[in-house]
Amino acid sequence: NGNNLVDAEGVKVRTVKLLASQNVGFESLPVQFVNKATKAGFVFNVLVIGETGIGKSTLINSLFNYDFKLPPGDYQHDSVTLDKHAFQLEEGSVRLHLTIIETKGYGDQLNMTDSCQGIVEYIDKQYEAYFQEESQVVRRLSDYKDTRIHVCLFLLAPTGSNVRALDLECMKLLSNKVNIIPVIARGDSLTKKELDSFKRRIMAEIHQHKISIYSFPEDDGQVADLNRKMNADVPFAVVGSSEVHEVAGHKARARVYPWGIVDIENEAHCDFTRFREALLRVNMDHLMQTTNLRHYEVYRDRRMTELGYGENEPQNFMETITRLRQTNEQKYRQKEEETRTSFVNKVREKEAELKERERELHSQFEHRKAEFSDHVLEINTQQSALQKEVEIFHRVKSELVNSQAGTIKGSKKN
Ligand code: GTP
Ligand code: MG
């Protein structure tokens, strides 16, 4: 009964229904949420693992029905690298930030373990980036561009016999780190009977090696039945094609062979359509959630333990995160204090340096001044000496003139 509602502190909550005729506006709240989410768009990061030329790019193109023009590999890799391409897709009013990461050189090396190690490191690096962001003092998670891998499509070669040791080893390493969906590539190269037994074989080996792969959730009422069927189809046998042909009166992505046509969207031909539906139409959201709530959580727990938030401590996540943030805050303050001190010290040093320089200049100035006044004194002395000489000269001159005049007078007298 709505009238008996109480809040957390026991205060009675009254139910009020506003008059429909006097709309105040907050009924648009869900629309506001949706608009906000839609405007920002969704992030989906796909990792495609498979040997060179197995059909990774073609599968991605077929899935999104778009030619992404992903560059092909060249069999010249010394080690496995990851080739990352980002796109912004729009379907209706929904924007999807899609990142496709393809392996280059996977399976081409003689040293098998190295093949997978780089992939594992890449996945962990993305978790670490998110972890750092989450424990920042000033968090910007709302504009954070999530790079964590949401799904790993693992393309298995259609050998029809055992799963290759490399694939098993690699899946084992990725197990519990990422949502693995194993896929049989080039499904058109096996007969129906071969496919069925190959699928059973793959699942048996996955179980035997205790590899944990992604399973579509069967606990959500709406899609439980559908997902149950999807899980029974794993590993999907897919066929990809970059060509569009006219098949039975409609245009379809298809592979044309001398003996007939494989329409990849025809459910009788392969599992492609069911695979696309399971991946993109029904469970994309669950893949994102699982990445965040399961795989990332495992990574975070590991990091927390490494940082000293051990298992004996209360496993309350908010508490731990708050403490981690406090530690970071402390570090941040300390850093700030250090920066300030070092700045003040620098200023002091500079000040002392300037003072020293001033003193130096001053003493130079005094020295020059003294030199100068010595100089002036000398000039003065020289000047007065010169003046004396001039006076003597004048005196001698006038005496000479006078004596000459006397001589002349005398000589006239004589
Ligand atoms: P790299 O990026 O170079 O490692 O190759 P990739 O794995 O992306 O393979 P890509 O999609 O470029 O396909 C390589 C070749 O395989 C092309 O000629 C495709 O037409 C062909 N191919 C792709 N998918 C299938 C398929 O399902 N069946 C068959 N029979 N051939 C396929
Ligand atoms: Mg490719």
Automatic annotation (TrEMBL):
Localization annotation: Cleavage furrow
Cellular component annotations (GO), alphabetically ordered: cleavage furrow; cytoskeleton
Residue ranges that the Swiss-Prot or TrEMBL entry lists as coiled coil: 318-364
Complete-protein stretch covered: 254 to 667 of 764
Domain Septin-type G: 40-306
Listed name of the protein: Septin-2
Key words of the record: Cell cycle, Cell division, Coiled coil, GTP-binding, Nucleotide-binding
Family assignment from sequence similarity: Belongs to the TRAFAC class TrmE-Era-EngA-EngB-Septin-like GTPase superfamily. Septin GTPase family.
